[in-house]
Amino acid sequence: MGSIPIARSIYSPCRLVDLPQVKCLYQARDRIEAQLLCDFLDRQLVRASIHGDYLSGAAGELPADIYPSVWIVDDDDLSRARELLDRFLIEQRRTLGAPWRCPRCAEQIEDSFELCWNCGQARVV
User: Fold this and answer.
1) Which run of H or of E encompasses 47?
2) What sign does the dihedral 125-96-42-122 (CA atoms) show?
3) Looking at the 3D structure of the chain, how many domains does it have?
4) pLDDT by residue for the chain (125 residues), tens digit each?
């Protein structure tokens, strides 16, 4: 059996000691959030990696405060990565609004999507 991610609802900066070549940016609530953040940073050309994503399986039934964390590979990207993290967290907390209608095919699309799933048309703001 695999481990089940433990969800945590509050932001927490990493409490791990920084390694010489990588810097800890964020301690995620689960593997999915960590991967979403890494993908977001990658799209912004910031190299990042996930550490500790399988440690919760080693904890067994013991209470543990083990969560995956996102680390920045290049020191020069750390300040920009912190700004991007703020943007990522704001977007994650954004409340969903009303669905929108595609201007091309009139399909109703949920607010969280920027492209029409039916025809690929971008959302018009």
Assistant:
1) none
2) negative
3) 2
4) 444 444 443 444 555 444 456 789 999 988 888 999 999 999 999 999 999 876 656 555 555 557 899 999 998 999 999 999 999 988 887 655 788 899 999 999 988 788 999 999 998 87
How many whole angstroms separate alpha carbon 66 and alpha carbon 51?
11
Handedness of CA 78, 83, 86, 92 (dihedral sign): negative
Who's near 31: CB < 8 A, 6+ residues apart?
Answer: 5, 50, 53, 68
Among residues 121, 119, 114, 120, which one has the least CA distance to residue 99?
A: 114
119 residue type, one letter: C
| Biggest distance spanned by C-alpha atoms of the chain | 54
Find the CATH number of the domain harbouring 63: 3.30.70.2350
Same domain membership, residue 78 and residue 37: yes
